[in-house]
């Protein structure tokens, strides 16, 4: 039997009017009551009638999401959270995999006024998007944007802290010869992670074993480590710009019969699903995908209902997850 707004009101012990206000994002509802309504909605698996609400609001009931790839478990987790939160508010999430504003997918969402709001996840060409979205008066939120000057209406992670924490962990274990393999410099996250890495080394009066940039791919880590082996030199530890690069390094070392972490310790970044499924389990820096999605959805909902008119940004802290690639299982902790 289909769950109605009256069922939600009964379950929460509040009036239909209060439930309706929560669904429409009204600021006049007490936070305690808003939480009661949201809990009742989740328990009953209530789905608002998006079509009826769209007519009442004079809007489409659709939020667009533009992302460059979905072959990434971190991005997948962010999209999952966005979808769940927006659905609770009666919005359908339309996902477009696009490399730029000139693509057919982006054109369909933006140029033809198909959406009430738009979220850009790790965008390239963000300036072009912002100009067009402002011109069309479409509320937007950026996640993991590349330029600090576009931080109004953004949700980002403090990647400097992540890079620093990863390197400090290796230093605390006694490593002094540490390499850093990063992504391309076009990414803000790359530059911030590298800055954190260099700051931690600088505090100890150390220089990097090697600093390299490349693709966020297993092949980059694998090929680089194979070169070190051919040259007869290895760092005692590697901080990789993402988990794929880290796994490439681990593969090359294991092929050569070199044990991780006894001979070389490895730290990745992102805490992709695969990092806790292949031995050695990978020490990595986790980005809080659920909190990123929740913060971005909340910000966009407020922009769409007009309660957030001035620019605001949310900056979240990452978390170091310690596993087998830096310490033996008996020593494992997380922090």
From TrEMBL:
Superkingdom, taxonomy of origin: Bacteria
Annotated Gene3D superfamilies: 3.40.50.2300, lambda repressor-like DNA-binding domains
Cell inner membrane in keyword set: no
Record key words, sorted: DNA-binding, Transcription, Transcription regulation
Domain HTH lacI-type, chain residue ranges per copy: 3-57
PROSITE patterns: HTH_LACI_2
Coiled-coil features, chain-numbered ranges: none
Molecular functions per Gene Ontology: DNA-binding transcription factor activity; transcription cis-regulatory region binding
SUPFAM superfamilies, sorted: lambda repressor-like DNA-binding domains, Periplasmic binding protein-like I
Key word Transcription present: yes
InterPro entries: HTH_LacI, LacI/GalR-like_sensor, Lambda_DNA-bd_dom_sf, Peripla_BP_I
Signal peptide stretch: none
Protein's name in the database: LacI family transcriptional regulator
Species name: Paenibacillus azoreducens
